[in-house]
Amino acid sequence: MTKEDYQLVDLHLHSHHSRHAGEKQTPKSAYSADYYLTQLKKHNVGAFSFTDHDVFTELFYLELKGLIERIKDRKITIFPGVEFRIRSINPKADCNFIFNNDLDLARLEKLKLLVRELQNKQGADLNLLVKEFKKAEFDFFIIPDVGKSGKCSFEDFENVLADVRYVEVNQGKENRLSKAIKSRLNNDYKQVFFSDCHDIKKYDKYCSKTKIKIPKDQLITFEDLKTQLYL
Asked: Where in the sequence is the domain holding 48, given as residue range(s)?
């Protein structure tokens, strides 16, 4: 399979906006939106989401979206996203929320404010997050981190399984938790491996390994994301 046959998807990325949560891996000086986009385009990323820690910055999202609209030689799609620290029996449990990108300015503002209201640096209640985003009529899915950098437990998301589309794990490895999920749910969730890159300058080292078989001249849709990702 050549690069013309597939694109990479990265739904776990960080910008300088993650620094507000005390994330020291992110650079102190902000890169330009154009630099972020150039790095992703260089690595054949056709769809992405900046899932900054416990925050959604709609102005940064809109700046990237505006730059994407000027690209003539290929199709690239951006999706709103957030990485929440969630309450868990395990330390440092995280879950990524990926939202449909059909949001107008008012809805993007609403998303920003709702994230600000619901986030909790000590760990937000995952069930409450799902409930409130549904109540506000957002279209989304979640990706628990079960073995890459976060340490979600099965109990953390057993009540919101309908909203899980993938589990994020160590690249190419079946760990104990992902096996337990399959065994207890009788549901073989697809596994994904995104970059979790906190400094886009180092994207060469941390780039996503998750693919989607959609040509570069076609936009990747939200429905595509929910069903077509693979390692």
From this structure: 7-227
Q: What are phi and psi of 73, to 5 degrees?
A: -95, -5
The per-residue pLDDT string of the chain (231 residues; one tens digit each, 9 = 90 and over) reads 455 689 999 999 999 888 766 566 677 778 999 999 999 999 999 999 999 999 999 999 999 999 999 998 888 999 999 999 999 888 788 999 999 999 999 999 999 999 999 999 889 999 999 999 999 999 999 998 876 555 777 788 889 988 999 888 765 554 555 566 666 666 667 788 899 999 999 999 999 999 999 998 899 999 999 999 998
Give the residue among 39, 35, 44 at the shortest CA–CA distance from 9: 44
| Structure-token pair, residue 51 | 């899932």
Cα dihedral 118/9/214/192 (nearest 10): -90
Number of domains in the chain: 1
Within a domain: residue 188? yes
Q: Does 1 reside within a domain?
A: no
What's the pTM?
A: 0.91
CATH code of 151's domain: 3.20.20.140
